[in-house]
Amino acid sequence: MEHLHISQFLGILVVMLVAAKAAGYLAQRAGQPAVLGELIGGVLVGKSVLGLVNPELETIHLLSELGVVILLFAIGLETDLGGLLKVGATSLAVAVAGVALPFALGFAACRLLGQNNLVSIVAAATLTATSVGITARVLSDLGRLHEPEGQIILGAAVIDDILGLLILGVVVELTEGREVSWLGIFQTTASALGFLVAALLVGRHVVPVLFRWAGRIELPGTATALALIAAFGLAWLADRCGSAMIIGAFAAGLLVVRAPQSHEIERGITEIGHFFVPLFFFAVGAAVDLGALNPLQPAGRAALLIGLV
To answer: How far, in Å, CA of 265 to CA of 158, rounded?
Structure first.
């Protein structure tokens, strides 16, 4: 594993931030969300083009993961839980359709290409994957996060993430030659969905007490620091419970927004997000291998399949 000296790390950080911010600005000037520019900036500076940043470095990976956790926490702070619950049924329908249709079409396409059932299932499962982080950021950049349509899309993206965990669990069992059981499916679903429900039910009583206590501490930044502790703690707990870290961070945002210091916390998290969040999207772009899109290669044919579906 490559070891970075602090000077090397700082140099890489400068390149990442300059590329992400410059490309994000150009995207906005072109009438597009800044996130698109950050992704393209990563592609240009990453391994496919200039090769200035190696996205496989553990340090870069940790920075990007921290960025997406902070992003989902910030989105949770901006989300009205009541409004999200009002569109829950619609979000569920959108999520199920968004998973079922790509899976069915991907499976059918692979079977038509002569692949066996296992390969077809694995390929179809990859087509169901979504990114709640990118979805939330695009809605935020476009100023549509608080609109009913935006709430439906965000709710569907969160549900998609839970369904994705379920599909991943089934696929892992199939590829390892184990028989898929209804008990296993139920356990995976319960751990992913149960965590979110439990966190919201318990947290709504615990979080206000903690922040009332924090309000007695006359130390600048205390509320924001406590909010970050809640976000990181729930993200860690979600991962340990078999859910996704970003679901835990999102749940933390939904809870912390009820705190008396919510406006102070939103300002602090927004400032922190300006640094970390672009690093996540840059790292995603930097990891893209344009050479793999060659249609003569298996990965290229997979990309073509995704485009067709």
So the answer is: 23
With beta carbons less than 8 A apart as the criterion, state whether 71 and 270 touch.
no
- Per-residue exposure over 1-37, b if at least 16 CB sit within 10 Å of its own CB, e if not: eeeeeeeeeeebbebbeebbbebbeebeeeebbbbbb
Q: Which long-range contacts (CB under 8 A, 24 or more apart) does 84-88 make?
A: 84/151, 84/154, 84/155, 84/254, 86/151, 87/148, 87/151, 87/152, 87/155, 88/155
Helix (H, G, I), strand (E, B), or coil: what is residue 102? helix
Q: Are 177 and 230 in contact (CB under 8 A)?
A: no
Q: Distance between CA 172 and CA 185 in Å, rounded?
A: 12
Question: Are 44 and 50 spatial neighbours (Cβ–Cβ below 8 Å)?
Answer: yes
Of 186, 198, 47, 64, nearest to 131 by C-alpha is 64
Q: Where are the beta strands (DSSP E) in the chain?
A: none
Calpha distance 190→203 (Å, rounded):
18
Q: What is the pTM of this model?
A: 0.74
pLDDT tens digits, one per residue of 7-46: 888 888 999 999 999 998 898 888 888 888 888 888 888 8
CA distance 133 to 35: 10
| Token pair recorded at residue 306 | 């995704």
Neighbouring residues of 134: CB distance < 8 A, sequence distance ≥ 6:
35, 281, 284
Choose from 8-12, 140-144, 289-293 the range with maximum mean pLDDT: 8-12
Pull the structure tokens for residue 245.
């870290």
- Residues 107-124 pLDDT 10s: 887 778 777 777 777 777
Q: What are the backbone angles phi and psi of residue 176, rounded to the nearest 5°?
A: -90, 5
